[in-house]
Amino acid sequence: MPDIPPPHAKTPKFIGMATDHAGYELKEHLKGKLCEAGYEVIDFGVLKPKPDDDYPDFVVPLAHVLSRGEVDRGIAICGSGVGASVAANKVAGVRACLIHEVFSAHQGVEDDDLNMLCLGGLVVGHSLAWDLVQSFLAARFSGEERHRRRLAKVADLERKP
Fold it and tell me: Pairing between strand 14-19 and 73-78?
């Protein structure tokens, strides 16, 4: 079976973050919490929010760095989280998902090797967002054969025009 992702045993340390203007406040809050918890955060912006900031301009560079393995996990935020998820998933090797509850934050990693958490800056509050981030970062891909088989099929789709 080609391109079956191996289980990720290592603890994520390097976290990339990106947002547009609508997610800036939440990004800054989470970045502070992550730094306090000992993570290294690479901030892809937005650094000074403006209403005409476009989420692809910040999320896609993060997605490319994540796909190359230069960060361990990614967190992308826009107003709803939908646009960030759509943009990130255009980059091969990125498995991004909009999450609003804790079960999916860890289950997405355990079963689907989720590597980017997408949040709605206008949807989730600080407390829930931090719970989601902690659950996402604590989870590890199970490596079970059935999940590896399914991910290999997704990887095959990424190579097709």
Answer: parallel
In a domain, 6, yes or no: no
Does residue 154 lie in a domain region? yes
Domain count, the chain: 1
Q: Is the pLDDT of residue 55 over 80?
A: yes
**Residue 157, H or E segment:** helix 145-159
For residue 128, is it left (φ>0), alpha (ψ between -120 and 50) or beta? alpha
7 in a domain, yes or no?
A: no
Cα 143 from Cα 97, distance rounded (Å): 19
Domain around 122: 14-159
Q: Per-residue pLDDT tens for 65-84?
A: 999 999 999 999 999 999 99
Q: Which of 80, 81, 103, 84 is nearest to 94 (CA)?
A: 84
In CATH, what number is assigned to the domain containing residue 94? 3.40.1400.10
Residues in contact with 134: Cβ distance below 8 Å, sequence separation at least 6, in sequence order = none
- Per DSSP, the three-state class of 7 is coil
Euclidean distance between CA atoms 39 and 54, whole angstroms: 27
Enumerate the active-site residues: 78
